[in-house]
Each structure stands twice: as structure tokens, then as C-alpha cells.
Amino acid sequence: MTEQEFLEYVQSGGQVETDDWMPDDYRAKLVKFIEMHGNSELMGVLPEREWILRAPTLQRKLALTAKVQDEVGHAQLIYRVVEDLGKPREQCLEDLISGKSKFHNVFHYPTETWGDVGVIAWLVDAAAIISQKALLKCSYAPYARIMKKICWEESFHILHGRDVILTMMNGADEQRELVQEALNRWWAPLMQFHGNPISPADDPMFQWRIKSQGNEEARQQFLDGYVPQIWELGLIVPDPKLGKNDEGVWEYTEPDWAELKHVVTGHGPQTAERLELRKTTRAETEWVRRTVLAEAA
Amino acid sequence: MIVYEVFRQERKGQAFAHAGSVGAPDAAFAEAYAREQYGRRGESVALWVVPREAVAEIHEFVDELQKNYHRVDGYPLKEKLKEARERAGTAPPADR
Ligand SMILES: [Fe+2]
Ligand SMILES: [Fe+2]
Questions:
Q1: Would you call B25 and A295 a contact, using CB atoms and an 8 Å cutoff?
Q2: Which of A100, A114, A129, B91 could make an SS bond with A154 (beta carbons 3.0 to 4.6 A apart)?
Q3: Which CATH number do you get for residue A112?
Q4: Which of residues 11-30 of B touch A (CB under 8 A)?
Q5: How many structural domains are present in chain A?
């Protein structure tokens, strides 16, 4: 099979297994994309972890702990897929800590209040599930297969997040205020989440059918699904330009793409602190990995 | 690290389906990881955890002897039935 034949194969819906021949560029793009997804699952638990001890009830504490466990589980599944493509998990973690590889923009920001925890579980997970559902059709079959389990668990997270938000919205004015403030903080990163509106024709990830939808398509889907849900609670989306035009397309203020780039390249408000925590815990648990491997040997 | 393939059964009586894999230093850890990864939300009633090395993979099925009697295309009933009906004079009007 030539590279051109391979390209035609994946573009016509063909799927690839681990041992099948694949062009080097395809393998490299796959590793980069899937590794960033794994990094994001792993780094994504840190903003939420900060709130486990401060959760308002035991039920919430347990639900949040379970979500954190799910996300770490997603990271494990995803790194396993990367390993089969040739990059060991240890190397992925090394590159994450050293800042060589990236993770999603939304996990570089602080979680100021319990309102942020609700907004993250509801809307950040909603934005993520849109990308992940599109990966169910990924040309790399082992990745597409684990996405089924991941999407199923993500739907619990949205449920949990929405429940947190609804409880607060039905509570006191101060609680409603916390939600509105959190929404104000998270709206810009959420609008940046699906990436700049590069046309699918110019997006190598789409050309290889690693992704099955373009960035703008994903964002439109997010707006379509969630803006009405935000509005019906009496919350205000902090974008005066936001609205659906006559053709049914959402219009909005141009997101700050420079900020997105700045943040994902390691300059977000919490990037350094969170990577430092990853580094510390990795060093602290080194003896566990050593012992486990020695025991088994 | 050893790679273990995990198969899960969703409900009693159903076929086990491949779910994914876990990396573990030995069978005991593989079992623990598989339980956590593929069973903790009650999504499985049973798991099979198998070292990847133990799975024999076959994906070429050469048919040198053209054994089409194993397959549906070995039985071209449609044409033969048409001929038989014509001979017996029982063919539906469209065929006459
Ligand atoms: Fe996740
Ligand atoms: Fe999630």
C-alpha cells in the first residue's frame, strides 16, 4: 500500500489496527494527538482534585472523587493505546512534566470556587464529549473502541455537573452569583476549546481521519446543545454578540486565539504549578513503581 | 510490564467482547487493573484477562480449493429455481 492509497482508504471510512502498515506521518500524528488527549485527562483532574476536601456534602465529595478516578482511568486507557503505537507511558509522562508535550487549554486555569467545579463538570466535560464522540469514528480503530467506554463515563460527569449547577441555581442569591461568576471566567476558555476555525481541508488530523469533524463544526454543536440550557437557568453568557443567525449558525465574538496558543504552550495561569505538582507526586511514588516491578520480577 | 487483553461480558449469556488492554507487572495486578478499568461501574458481569502473548491471531484465510460449499455463494438457488419453475410451468407472471 502506498501513502496515497492509505490516505484514500482512511478517507473512504477505512479503519486501521495496531499491526497494520501505516505511513510514518500518520503514526506520528496519531501519537501526538492521542498523547495530548491522555495528558489532558491526567492534568484535568488537578483542578477538580483541589475541591475534593472542600466539597459541600459527603455525596458531592464521593461523586467528585469518582469523577477524578474516571479521568485518571481514561488517561490509563489512552496511554495504553499510545504505548501500542510505540511510545512508552513513562516517556509520555516525562514529556508532559518537562513541557515538551501539551494538554488542553481548559486545564491550565484555576478553580476559584465550587461554582467552577460545577461549570467544569457540566460545560468543560460537555465540550470534551463532543470531541470524543467524533473520535468514535477515528480511522485508528483501537482508539475509536476505547472512546465508547470513555464517552459513556463522560456522560456521568455532565450529569453530576448539571446537578451541582441546578442545586446552586435553586439555592440562595450568593450561590447563583457563584455560578454566574464561574461562567464568566470559563466562557472564553470554553470558546477556545475546540480550536481555531481552520478548515477541515487544511487540518492534517482531519485529512488522516483521526478527527472526523472540523473545529468550527464541534463548536457549533457545543453552542447548539448548551447555550439554550445555560439561558433557561437565567444565566447570562458573557458575550453580547452571541446569537443564532437566520441560517441557524451561531455567531459570537472572535475568541482570543493568541491566548489559546499562549496557554497551551505552557503559559497558562496554573500551568507551572500543576506541572510541578505532577512532578512531585511522580517522584514521591517512584518507589511504588520500583517495588511493584521488583515484586513481579 | 506485560500487556493483558481484557474481554468483558455485559450480561449473562452474552458473548465476551474485547474491551481493551491493561499494562501490568503480573497477573494479580492485571486482575486488579481490569476490575477497576472495566467493571467498577457495574458495566460487566464477567471479565477475561489474557496475556497478549497467549492470544493467537489469525487473519488470513486462503481458500486454495475453492471450497464454496461452505459459503452462501456456493448455492446459486435463484437461477436454478427459475429454471425449474419454468420447466414446471409455475413461474410467476413477471418471469413468463
Ligand atoms: Fe475523561
Ligand atoms: Fe470527564
A1: yes
A2: A129
A3: 1.20.1260.10
A4: 18-23, 25-26, 29
A5: 1
